[in-house]
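<instruction>
Derive structure tokens from the sequence

<record> Sequence and structure tokens follow
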Amino acid sequence: MSPAMLGLVGMIALFGMLALRLPVALAAGAIAIPGIAWLGIMSGETLSHSIAAIPGMMQDLLHPDRMAMVALFVLLGNIAFYAGISTRIYDAARIWLLHVPGGLAMASVLGCGGFASISGSSVGCASTMGRICVPEMLRHGCDPRLATSSVAVGGTLGSLIPPSVLFILYGLLTGESVAKLFIAGLLPGLLSLAGMLAVILWWVREEPGIAPRPAPAKESRAEATLALWPPAILLAIIIGGLFSGLLSPLTAAATCVGLALAIGVLYHRLSAEVLWIVFRDSAVQSVLLLLIVAAAALFLNFMEQTGVGLAIAEWARFSGLPVLTVVALVAVICLLLGMFVEPLGILVLTLPVMAPMMQSYGMDPIWFGVILVKLLEIALITPPVGLNVFVIGSVTRDVAVDQVFAGVARFLLVDMLVLLVLILFPVFSTLLPGLMAP
């Protein structure tokens, strides 16, 4: 068996294992380690020598600074959740938008965007905000399709708005600047948010009965706005610090962790018992995430050695396929994979081919990273898998999953339109990173 054929078999095997819902780290590692060993034997090396070379492949990737950055952003998300910081954007938006038709659904989208941006987890946002927003909307008489789908799609904003876990993984695996990727996701994230709000406005206008006007809020708008200062400061530190070049991602994460801890203690939300839960969960999540990074790096190394990704990229280039055609094919493939594989799995499965394709066509890796993450965001709500949809269905058992998908379908159309805009106009992704301080 030739190396290229071995790489192709490895990709097919990984797809099968991920479609069967095996953990990404286990699936990628189970294929990469034997594959690397076999390639070493094929080149005349001993088995022990091939295996001994594996730790060196991850040495640069798992640098202490990079591992600390991942752990700190995970810790920030957990502290912000238990300190009550993540939900404050929803609380304020709910009060300000109560008088607007569909205002509760809009507040849910805004709240989910804020929660997901601070926590960095779209699925975690869907789980938490689903328990908070959906019951309240149902209690006010909102249609179950609108109530559940607005939270499901709002949670996907965490994939683009910093700090995004997917951008961190993409940056670590491709060697691109995580800071630039964070900033690059801002305009596409805001564009996606505007599209979601537009869908709610249109939907409520077409079917006025799906979102009855609730009673006026008893809370003061001024008090609600003042309560926004904790998440506003955290986001300002991350975005402003990275954009100005004053802070690195590691320093921004550490600064925000310290501030979030102080806020939690100030508001008496972080007792000793809660802090134990925060640090325990953060440690487990960080280790799992780093395992995925390590396994993905090994799989990328294995695929690079087989040359299958480079062969596909060269075939596409010499076939005369235009750049936009290649990106469109990538989009179709990712959307199809999204029907069977979770987003992290799609990232690991496609990067071995996408990375050589970027180099062969001279694509801007920041722009391509935004396109890929947007595709992974769409995969979170694409049937039949739609991870966010099933999370919402599991936490709101009164609403069937098919009703959630029925509501999400309206948002999918706008998401595809936003994706098309990002593909045709790269400036939405490259403008802000180009203005960053060196």
Summary: Residues 3-435 form one domain. The chain has a mean pLDDT of 84. The chain has one domain: 3-435.
